[in-house]
Amino acid sequence: MSDALNHDFLAAMPLAALLVDQSERIIAANTEAQTLLGQQIVGRHYATILRQPQVIEAIERSLRDKGASRSRHLANDGAQDTTFEVACRYVNGIGAVAGGAVLVSFTDVTPMEQAGQMRRDFVANVSHELRTPLTAIMGFIETLRGPARNDPAAQDRFLGIMEQEAGRMNRLVGDLLSLNRVESEERIRPRGAVDLTAQIASTLNSLRPLATEAGVELHSTGPETPVNVTGDEDQIRQVLTNLIENAIKYGGRGGEVRVTLSEAERDPAVRGPAARIQVSDKGAGIDPVHLPRLTERFYRADSHRSRQKGGTGLGLAIVKHIVNRHRGRMRVESTLGSGTTFTVILPK
Ligand SMILES: Nc1ncnc2c1ncn2[C@@H]1O[C@H](COP(=O)(O)OP(=O)(O)OP(=O)(O)O)[C@@H](O)[C@H]1O
Ligand SMILES: [Mg+2]
Description:
Its EC number is 2.7.13.3. The protein has helices at residues 3-12, 31-37, 46-49, 53-65, 110-145, 152-184, 196-214, 233-251, 303-308, 315-325; strands spanning 16-21, 26-29, 69-76, 81-92, 100-108, 193-195, 217-221, 228-230, 256-267, 272-281, 329-335, 339-347. The protein has 348 residues and is α+β, with helices and mostly antiparallel strands.
């Protein structure tokens, strides 16, 4: 094959690819390979371009054995670390010397690596979250069988703590299942009609005992007439419950939580008519460093306080997926020391 043919052939490949012949030089490279490795790579010794030992070794082996080999190339595209699967295949009859060259191609396997990493992180997180209450329960069982065997008062207290810890595990499993369900339905559009005015009123009613216990007053502002959106009633209710519960739990020190419902002819966030729900508190606020990660599973801004309040760190992750399913948007604004406002915008 002539140089021009080599060039056309590489240009047609959908992957970054280059040819290294027996002179150990790169004799051709396509645009994708130049983007990955640099513009001036043709003519250079391959080991000065591909400096990673495992890649050099794979090419070396292919050149020597006139066969196939594989390895990995690690890079960074400016925004993130990337991983490429490198495949080396020997092609007879091309190249300047000794009649052959190695075709080296690079497949981007970064998304697969990331999915694997996410799965490992998730399993580690779940195990950790379950282990903490489980360890406590096991410790108390031991105490009940031993030192507290004949102490009814202590037994009662320990059983109370065990109940709390078991409750936490139960909530965690419940939240995980509901997250799973929401995620698996995320691409299916909800079809029901939901009256936000009524849902807000009834959610506030059911959270009133929690608010009273925390010394928080619940207020709501908005139209008294129905405000309808297309949605899944249970899920909308879960969004409201999670946001208001958070405002009470974490913003309660401000003494007041307000839910505001409004409508707009056109909201830029959803490019059309929308209903807007705002849940604001006058609590301690959230440090801006936490804001981008708040909707990640298991992420807690103040992990000690959240755990103490029985939080699993899944509430906002569930909210985010529900809002996505409804083609809506969620925003958080928070000022340290003066409070937090969560806004959910739903298309009408
Ligand atoms: N209104 C708020 N004010 C201050 N911090 C908040 C507020 N809402 C949420 N946060 C912070 O965001 C974190 C994540 O909230 P999220 O609802 O996802 O989890 P959680 O409340 O800890 O647990 P769960 O809701 O599953 O019981 C909380 O742990 C808390 O630190
Ligand atoms: Mg929560």
